[in-house]
What does this fold into?
Amino acid sequence: MVITKNYIAKGEGANRFEKIPVQIYETADEAVKAVAREIVDLVQMKAASSEKCVLGLATGVSPIKLYQELVRMHREEGVSFRNVVTFNLDEYLPMPKESEQSYHYFMHHHLFDHIDIDPKNIHIPDGTLKGDEIDKFCRNYEKEIEAAGGIDLQILGIGRTGHIGFNEPGSFITSQTRKVFLNDLTIKDAIKDFGSRDLVPTKAITMGVGTIMQARRVILMAWGEKKAPIIKATVEGRVSDSVPATFLQMHSNVQFVIDESAASELTRADYPWLVSKVDWDDKLIRKAVIRLCQKLKKPILKVEDKDYQDNGLSDLIEKFGSANKVNIAVFNDMQHTISGWPGGKPNSDDSTRPERANPYPKRVLIFSPHPDDDVISMGGTEARLVEQGHEVHAVYQTSGNIAVFDDYLYEMMDIADLFSLNMGHPDEGYKQVKEAIWKQKSEGGNSREILKYKTALREAEALAACRFMGIPSERVHFLNLPFYETGSVKKNPLGKEDIDIIVNLLREVKPHQIYAAGDLADPHGTHSVCLDAIMQAFDVVCEDDWFKDCYVWLYRGAWLEWEVEKVDMAVPVSPSELSIKRQAIYRHGSQNNGPAYPGDDPREFWQRAEDRNRNTADLYNKLGMAEYEAMEVFVRYKHRK
Ligand code: F6R
It folds into this structure.
């Protein structure tokens, strides 16, 4: 899914910054097709000469789409994997094979159960081994790879620590299959699969860097923004055991296949004008000037001709005639993104405003993946839209029920229980819920019944936040999208019923303006799936008359903010509005004081939101624009089917 246009200098690794050949695709879907094609061509070429094809395989989020494509090719195109022998990179330790989190389960679930591979050709490190058995197994794993003739093609993902397999920083280039300890960041990243940190194993068996380096060909795949910094470090940085993936720079037949988001920090994407001749458009000019200002610590209007010349940007001087002219063009462009009228300013000239003046008032739909993302990311704008007289609807896509601690629910039930006792109408129901919570605490998991109450609790919190901002309850929609309702951190794939629910709401409200979370940091995270659901709904309604006159604005989720150069609308937030926003966030009591899913950031949600909005205002200020307390920013999305 590409939601903003990225300018990336052309050429496959053919620039002075990249030390590994990199192929960039617009989307992961396109990329995996190319990788699957290469695998299948190799398998078939080997089959034609009655040879086995030895594949090294990875697990994790990155190869899931690749395996789906291989399964599709087997089913629809009759591709056979009978001659394939596989060696998986790694397995957690300890880890029973049947556990849903095991790589054994993963590989069977995503690939092996759906193709015609001979089960005896499958090799996956054994997470059930103990003590000396582990070393013996590891030595034998190496021998088995050798006996199979070595790995023809090794598929890799990359961890944010720069690990390949589970070769964490500090691994030797010659390391072999062995027991390893997982890095702290790797453990944090695995929380999404295990539910909580204490359930994530701290050890694993992994093929070594040396084992991987011996593969005849290596393809490393990476998707999403979260991987962008480590991709840059690996592709452009120095070879170092502190980023084990950099050892791949020394492999003679390696290829990185990544999507545009994962490529976004490579020089060719971040500073494309340093790599090749570029076709300048407004956004790219803005980006170049902002980068220059940031580097020189100067506001836009103070940048001089020589600054452009010294930084590979003489092109812009030539195009505009002088530094002053470039500066003024970019200054005005940035200035026009700022608007205190997110729903458009009625009865006024809107030719340079981000939103159109008419119609007024507008019907506005604010999609929020979880019940608090709207207030965290755009609470100031949400309150303003209400205050400026628009018909604002808050739409909560998922229940967010797994993010409620049992203890918190218990406390709420206790309050209700005590109330009912005091009022002289003791209610057995509350007692029963409390008992069920006790039972669940001792047995683990999330029972359906308790999840139902957690859903209700989060709905009540969202209603309180909406009430606080002036959104009436009849304009608050809880979609409870089914894909989310698995009761565990692993979600179901999006289905038609998820899309239909959104389509029905869109057609019922016929909004003039839509806000949605444009979060791509985690390609399989709930935010990204929720955005995908909206995009698929847009595919259905895109010919409707109302949709043709609907503006779609994307905010970022709790984790990241849009880069200033991408922003189409920046809504200033005053100190008092920031405090309203904070209070709206507080209404989500179950997420305060250390939420169940904090991500990498130890700060409370309101703190992150404020820091982030203040930081954006500061960036604008440093560029020489007006000084605001805080700013919420949006990117306009134009749908193309
Ligand atoms: C998996 C493996 C790891 C992953 C890496 C990226 O077998 O060895 O190196 O490839 O942690 O994981 P995802 O793809 O989940 O981001």
Summary: The pocket of fructose -6-phosphate is lined by residues 58-62, 89-90, 157-159, 163-166 (CB under 6 Å). The first helix runs from residue 28 to 48. The CA atoms of residues 308 and 314 lie 6 Å apart. The chain has three domains: 22-257, 275-335, 363-404+445-637.
